[in-house]
Amino acid sequence: MRQTLETARLILGGYSESDTADLVSLIGAREVAATTLRIPHPYREEHAREFLSGARENEHGFAIRLRANGRLIGGIALSPDLNRRRAELGYWIGVPFWGNGYATEAAREVVRYGFEHIQLNRIFASHFEGNEASRRVLEKIGMRHEGRVREAAFRWGRFFDLERYAILRDEFHRG
Predict the structure, then answer these.
(1) Share of the chain above pLDDT 70, in %
(2) What angle do CA 16, 18, 19 make, to 5 degrees?
(3) Whether pTM exceeds 0.85
(4) How far apart (Å, rounded) are the C-alpha atoms in residues 116 and 79?
(5) For residues 121 and 111, what is the distance between their CA atoms, to the nearest angstrom?
(6) Domains and their CATH numbers in the chain
(7) pLDDT tens column, 46-61
C-alpha cells in the first residue's frame, strides 16, 4: 500500500484519473521529454491513461503535488531491486515549476523513505549528459558522481552519455 509522504511544500501520493489532462500538459512539454528516457513525445491522452494504469501498481511511485493547493507538478519513483536492496530514482517536474527546488525537496524525501521504509542500502540515479539541473538535484540530496556510461541512451536519433550518481544508506544518515 502506497504511503503519502509530506514535505514543507509538497505532498507525495497517488495519482488519480483526474490527473490525465495535467499529465498531458506537463509531461507533454518537449523540454520534459528531452530529459527522460521513457516519456514519449508527443505525449497524448492515451499515454497518460497507460501511465496512470501502471502508476496504480507501483507503490513506490508518487505524484508530486503542491501542499498549498494540491496541484500536480511532477512525479517521482523508486524502482527497487529488493534482492539487492537497491533502487533507481527517477523524477520529472513540469516546466512551469522548474527552478523552485521542488525536485530536490521531493527527491530528498523519497530517498529517506527508501532507506527508512524499504530498507534499501543503495539508491542510484542517472541523467543525460549536460542536464545540469538534474546534476544539481542529485548532488544536493547527497549523491556522489560514480561515472559516465558512454552512449548508454538513444533518444531522438542520437546517443547520449548517462552520468551515474548514487548514495548509500550510511552516507544518507551521516549527511
Answers:
(1) 99
(2) 70
(3) yes
(4) 15
(5) 11
(6) 5-174 (3.40.630.30)
(7) 999 998 988 887 889 9
